[in-house]
Amino acid sequence: MGANKPAINALGRAQGAYCDMGNLLRARFAARELNLFARRPARSMQSGRLRTRFRGRGVDFEEVRLYQAGDDIRAIDWRVTARTQVPHTKLYSEERERPVYILCDQRPDMFFGSVNCFKSVLACHISALLSWAALEGGDRLGALVFNDQEFRDLRPKRSKHTVLAGLQLLQSFNHRLTSPLGSGPLTLAQMLKDTRRIAKPGSALFIVSDLHDLDAETEKQLFHLHRHLDITLIRTHDPLEHAISGSGQLTITNGHDRQQLPVGDKRFQRQYRELNQRREQQLSDTTARLGLEVIDISTSDDPVERLRQRFGRQQRQSSSKRTP
């Protein structure tokens, strides 16, 4: 359900069945409007431009507290100490950076779409926007791209070369897709297990996937990752996955075989809708238990606008954990 060749869009938006390198490169201009860490405190021990909740010597005064063993004596507040006759230490907010990892799903299940582009193309475009935004923010960028057979990773570096290498990985994996039917063993849970080995504590991890195989093992791996990383789930999906309406028959294909769905059958429509509702509820329950944020982006959406709603430089913090 889509073009066989990548479409080129002057605005760099996601289109077609395969991603286009020109669109991924043009995403850099839109990414300037994004600030990935507008609402997040970092945990990394590297210096950078992001204010964190680490306490230590820095440029911004934070508070005064009782002296504790191991505190730097140079930070003692002698005025408060003299007044209270109890040693007190000054604390400061430091500026630090955090490595950014982008995990992009390019498995066969992502090779589907009914509006504008395939989910796999949308995932590549979102990953490109996040990559350019990380570079713009002066953060070290790492990437992990996987299909159902293998994965490749790039270690975090603060350079345009790393972003370009990541875009090449995205295009390479994307253009290998030929069918939505996969036969490989690599699941999201297994990929997350490998991510635990690769990503350093304190990093920010953006997972771009349709999350079709979110199960108990995946939840377990997310739980372990979330203990040490800041995780944002970005789920790609297509309107046709949520509901089917109309009359007559709908022909779908996996690139080899064709099958007709009785979209005019009310019973079929109801069963299809109920199946999707169960999946939505499972996702909602799982992310609520883990305390994870989910950003839903459809192939019918403008991914730049959806990301701007969450990461726009002028946006205020939302009280909701789930972006509708």
TrEMBL record:
<dbReference type="InterPro" id="IPR002881">
    <property type="entry name" value="DUF58"/>
</dbReference>
<dbReference type="Pfam" id="PF01882">
    <property type="entry name" value="DUF58"/>
</dbReference>
<protein>
    <submittedName>
        <fullName>DUF58 domain-containing protein</fullName>
    </submittedName>
</protein>
<feature type="domain" description="DUF58">
    <location>
        <begin position="63"/>
        <end position="279"/>
    </location>
</feature>
